[in-house]
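Slide 14.
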Amino acid sequence: MSRRVRDFMKRNLITANLNDSVAYAKRLMRENKTHSVLIPPVRGGRSWWIFTETDLLLALDSGEDPENISIGDYASPVKYKARSDWDYRRALDEMINAGVKHLPVVDDSGNVVGVISSTDMIDDFE
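Slide 15: predicted structure.
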């Protein structure tokens, strides 16, 4: 039987707010050994955002103090998602075709229930 996204995804969502600092996101990522932070929709909104290690590098390269930079200045709205019941190949194809390394994972109701990264798939693949 083929492996499913639910077999690879991280269920512990690491989240922040758009107005949190880059320094805070960096600490979250380091403490939780993750390469991305999800930002839930702002009250009344529906769009999730994502701040990745690439965004972190861009922010740090700006020369500004990471305590004074909002992650919202570098985060991107989530455009691509995976479903937990997808075959891992479908998620991998989605990442490759979209040019992303992280996909929030949604359940049948569209609720974000996890996140999967290319690193998770490589590290966990047997």
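Speaker note: The domain at 5-124 is CATH 3.10.580.10 (CBS-domain).
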